[in-house]
């Protein structure tokens, strides 16, 4: 089942359940996916769907951080609910330990020895964890293991 099909089904379920927060989030996701489909000019592949969902998740996480820093704690719970809804459509997220294992294997495979090899390691790791791990987490793990 494609992402748009899932979103349409969940949109109907949220309407029937009168779940306004889920409904608005699913509508935003559906809009983002549809806009991306129009932009690329074809039905989205699963990688493109994950890219759209990851982008939407990142935007919400960044907003939570900005609102918290600005003292607008009243807006954070709504965004956290949106984050939960977006995460339903993404593959299971990897934990820090799993990311460390993947990074260690990649460091050995590419022969990285210092921080100068950071780009080489990131370039090899990111396709492996695409949609399953946050880029900031991967970045920090690679930096810590290369130092």
Short précis:
GO terms for molecular function: carbon-nitrogen ligase activity, with glutamine as amido-N-donor. The chain is an all-alpha fold and 147 residues long.
CATH C-level category of the largest domain: Mainly Alpha
Secondary-structure element string = HHHHHHH
Q: What is the CATH architecture annotation of the largest domain?
A: Orthogonal Bundle
Q: What's the CATH H-level homologous superfamily of the largest domain?
A: Uncharacterised protein YqeY/AIM41, N-terminal domain
What separation lies between the terminal Cα atoms?
A: 43 Å
| Helix share bin | over 70%
Q: Provide the CATH topology of the largest domain.
A: Hypothetical Protein Yqey, Chain: A, domain1
Major sheet: none
In terms of DSSP E residues, the strand content is under 5%
Broad shape: globular
Mean pLDDT: 87
What are the segments in which pLDDT stays under 50 over at least 5 consecutive residues?
none
Structural class estimated from helices and strands? mainly alpha
Gyration radius, in Å: 18 Å
The number of distinct β-strands equals 0
What count of helical segments does DSSP give?
7
What is the number of domains?
2
Structure overview:
GO terms for molecular function: carbon-nitrogen ligase activity, with glutamine as amido-N-donor. InterPro entries: Asn/Gln_tRNA_amidoTrase-B-like, GatB_Yqey_C_2, YqeY/Aim41, YqeY/Aim41_N. This is GatB Yqey domain-containing protein. This protein folds into two domains: 3-89, Uncharacterised protein YqeY/AIM41, N-terminal domain (Hypothetical Protein Yqey, Chain: A, domain1, Orthogonal Bundle); 96-146, Arc Repressor Mutant, subunit A (Orthogonal Bundle), CATH 1.10.10. The chain is 77% helix and 0% strand. The protein has helices at residues 3-17, 20-40, 46-69, 76-89, 96-110, 118-129, 135-146. Helix 3 (46-69) packs antiparallel against helix 4, helix 5 packs across helix 6 and helix 6 (118-129) packs antiparallel against helix 7. The chain starts with a helix and ends with a helix. The mean pLDDT is 87.
């Amino acid at each position: 089942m494609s992402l748009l099909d899932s979103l349409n089904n969940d949109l109907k379920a949220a309407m029937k359940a009168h779940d306004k927060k889920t409904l608005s989030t699913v509508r935003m996701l559906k809009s983002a996916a549809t806009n991306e489909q129009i932009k690329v000019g074809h039905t989205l592949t699963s990688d493109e769907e994950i890219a759209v969902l990851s982008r939407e998740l990142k935007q919400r996480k960044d907003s939570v951080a900005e609102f918290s820093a600005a003292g607008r704690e009243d807006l954070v719970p709504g965004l956290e609910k949106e984050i939960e809804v977006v995460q339903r459509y993404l593959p299971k997220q990897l934990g820090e330990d799993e990311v460390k294992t993947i990074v260690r294997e990649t460091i050995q495979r590419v022969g990285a020895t210092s921080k100068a090899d950071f780009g080489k390691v990131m370039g090899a790791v990111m396709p492996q964890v695409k949609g399953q791990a946050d880029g900031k987490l991967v970045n920090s793990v690679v930096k810590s293991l290369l130092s």
